[in-house]
Design a protein that fits this description.
Layout: E1 2-7, H1 11-15, H2 17-24, E2 28-34, H3 39-45, E3 51-55, E4 59-63, E5 66-71, H4 77-84, E6 88-91, H5 111-117, H6 125-134, E7 140-144, H7 151-165, E8 175-176, E9 180-183, H8 191-197, E10 203-205, E11 210-214, E12 228-230, H9 234-257, H10 263-267, H11 270-284, H12 295-306, H13 315-318, H14 322-336, H15 340-358, H16 368-375, H17 380-387, H18 394-397
Parallel strand pairs: 1-2, 1-6, 2-5, 3-10, 6-7, 7-8, 11-12
Antiparallel strand pairs: 3-4, 9-11
Helix pairs in contact: 4-6, 6-7, 9-11, 9-14, 9-15, 11-12, 14-15, 15-17, 16-17
Bound molecules: D-mannonic acid.
Amino acid sequence: MGQIVHFGLGNFARAHLLDYTADAGGDWQVIGVNLRSRTTRDGLAAQDYAYALKVQGVGVKQIAVINTILLASEGQQPILQAMATADIISATVTEKGYHLDQNGQLDLQDPVIAADLTGLPLRSLIGFIAHDLAQRDRPVTILSCDNRPGNGDALRQAVQQFAQAAHLTIDWSLARFPNAMVDRITPATTDLIRQECNDPMAVPTEAFREWVIEDCFAGPRPDWPDVQFVQDVRPHELRKLRMLNGAHSFLAYAGLAQGYDFVHEAISDPQLRRQALSLMMEAGATLPQDIQDQVPAYAQALLVRFDNTELAHRLDQIAMDGSQKLPYRILDTLRLGATPVLISAVRAWMSYCIAQTALGKKLNDPLAEDIARAANSAQPERKLLQLIGAEDLAPLILE
Ligand code: CS2
């Protein structure tokens, strides 16, 4: 029997990796790990870890691949024991779950990482993987399923930097960290969805799904249907992160500023639609030459996905963690081709930070306190750009 230990049982994991694993069939068990909240674990445990996946326009699937879910707050040993016999250790912990600084290096001053380094009960994905690899005697694939360019490389480097700081010795020949592009729009669950599915743990998602993984596994993997195994994931990652996620972040801040709540509302606004499409095309122009011909069709397909009224994808959900998302969704693209919509996307984020702070609202962002301080400072925009490592773009954005 193959074993997957998956960190982060949020809606995305349950609509993507776990749906693919359910379709793969075969003899695979999934042990979940939640590092922070117990809510999902308690909710799923009450229904034998099975849940309804409501696929818009298709129907409701019952997903029953999770065997159990462990909580870091209930002790690290059971988690390390499960990891020791896993073939795959995967993660959807969002950008902030990697605890990286603006330069993509592990932030050793980050309070969670600093605590893990002092030998206190582990609370970070990075800490768990480093300690697992330090006592490991069999091959394992560490599979990041988070939005980030080179997510596997970034995770490997962070684990390496943690191991060095913690004086852990690791046999790196046992571990592989494939890069992967993951895609499926998965909103937060609403009461309406819970009622429709008669399931408090139901997950809504769209029919579309995509997964492109670097073909470098250390051992067995489920027979995931429709997954592309490739030598170079980068063109696929950049296409998705710059075009889809870039447009999402633009629509989130510009749409909220205009009083919209959902993606389908913002994209139906003629001016925002025009801007979102040109952002996609501008981002597309920065992609590797050999995939340029895919850009127009991909952009049109994104508009259709964004138009999906049934999906009810909230803009404030996308607006979360802007300090972690903007660098790879907007700033990297902007540095390759300065265009009006990309600039207005950064300005929309700054206005959002300043407006929310003026209302006394704390942003849902790991840098919330720094953002509030910057927004209340004498040069709010310049300070906000510094926070996301965009000082070099200040002449362009602040002119
Ligand atoms: C969204 C993503 O919340 C967000 O930031 O842009 O979750 C997006 O829906 C997914 O990456 C789509 O695959």
